[in-house]
Structures are given as structure tokens and as C-alpha cells.
Amino acid sequence: MANSSDPYSPPESELELTRKALQILLSSGFRVQLITKSDLVIRDLDIIRKGNCSVSISVTTTDDKVARKLEPNAPPPKSRLNVVRKLVMEGVPCTIRIDPIIPKVNDEKLDEMVKNISQTGVSHLVASTYKAKKDSFNRLVTTFPEFKETFTELYWVSGEQIGRARYLPKALRRDLLRNLRRLAEDFGMTYAVCREGMPELKSGQTCDGSHLIPNRRQPSKIL
After folding, report:
1. Where would I find the H helices in 28-144?
2. Most exposed residue of 6, 17, 57, 154, measured as fewest CB within 10 angstroms of its CB?
């Protein structure tokens, strides 16, 4: 819950639909991975820590200025990192996703970012580069017009077509992602990349961190 939309979008604070779904799934013994950018996930800690559940939080940058432009409606990075820290302290296995990595936008302070991530106690780091499609690319260059020529060169001239998206040149992607693996391992985390075609960079058991979902044979009463 969920790859295509966030299970903790703003209406969830009132509707509590995700909370109700978690109660049903976890009380029935299902294995659940929550993927979110929201700090609202901490509200459901009482349920999450009792069931077969792990949490994966996306942190695209730890630079507040960049975050406000790139993710204007998401909680600030510091808030998300604090949530991970609280979840880990309560025994909830967590993954952090650096996704997407965009040249010139969030690729220049990755060492500082990984250091901050490691201080949350998280055990697995996932990374993925930005894959350009016309609609998202138009939004990107509207937000960062100063990099329009660079983005156009990297994606539409030098990049490669994979499926329905334009990828960064493979050598550049490999250098970015290999550097992140080195940083992750320097700070004691396992690492994986998703949708990049580079399985040799994976040191964790799974790409998305789903291997961290606990198996609580006798989960506490959740409902």
C-alpha cells in the first residue's frame, strides 16, 4: 500500500480508510508494506507494530528548499526522517527510498543525505533514477526551468528509451547508483535499485525492502 498512490494522502487524516484497511489486513495475518511520503503513518503505529508490517518512506531530498519545489504538498524531509526514527525505535522495520534521483536537482549532496538517513536507524536503502515521460517532464522543466537544456540533453538526446519512459544514459545511471551503494554500505545499510536493470548493485534481499516484513506468528489483537 501503495505504489501508484499514497495511502496517507491528506483526506486520510479524517477518513481513516487506510487505518481501517490495515486493521482488516493485519488482524487476518496478511503481510503488508506501507509505501508513503507522509508523516501521518505514525498515527497508526499502534496497529503497525502488532502485525506483519513494514514501512517504506520516500525521501527525495533533505534540502528543504528543493523539497518545497519538488514535493510542495508533502511533509518536509526532516519530519519524514523523524517518523522513521520513531518507527524503528518501536521495532517497526523500515526502508527509505531515494526516488527519484534527478541530476542537478538532488544528486549533488547524496553523501550528506545518506548520512542523515543512516541516523534514523533504518536498515535498507532503495534508490531509483527519474524516468521521463512527456507529462512529468513538462512539469519538471516548468519547476526547474534553469535546467531545461540539461534535462533535454540527458533524457531526449543522450538517454535511452525503455518501455514507455526515457532513462538517463546507462553509464551515468550506473555511476550514480553505484556511488549510493558505496555510501549505504559505509553507513551499515543494505541497498537495492529498482527498475534499472542493474541487479549487480543489489546487496539486500529484495529491491523494495519487502523482505523486512516481520512474521509475527501470533499477532496481538489489532481490531
Report:
1. 45-48, 64-70, 77-89, 110-118, 134-143
2. 17
Q: What is the DSSP letter of 124?
A: E
Domain 17-129+188-212, CATH number (from 3.50.50.60, 2.40.10.10, 3.40.50.300, 3.80.30.30): 3.80.30.30
Tens of pLDDT, residue by residue over 17-37, are 999 999 999 999 899 999 999
> Which triple of cell numbers denotes residue 133?
515521460
Q: Which residues contact 207 (CB under 8 A, 6 or more apart)?
A: 126, 192, 193, 194
Neighbours of 45 (CB within 10 A): 15
Strands 165-167, 160-162: pairing is: antiparallel
Separation CA 182–CA 201 (nearest Å): 10
Helix (H, G, I), strand (E, B) or coil at 63: coil
Q: Where are the domains of the chain?
A: 17-129+188-212
Residues 159-197: tens digit of each pLDDT: 999 999 999 999 999 999 999 999 999 999 999 998 899
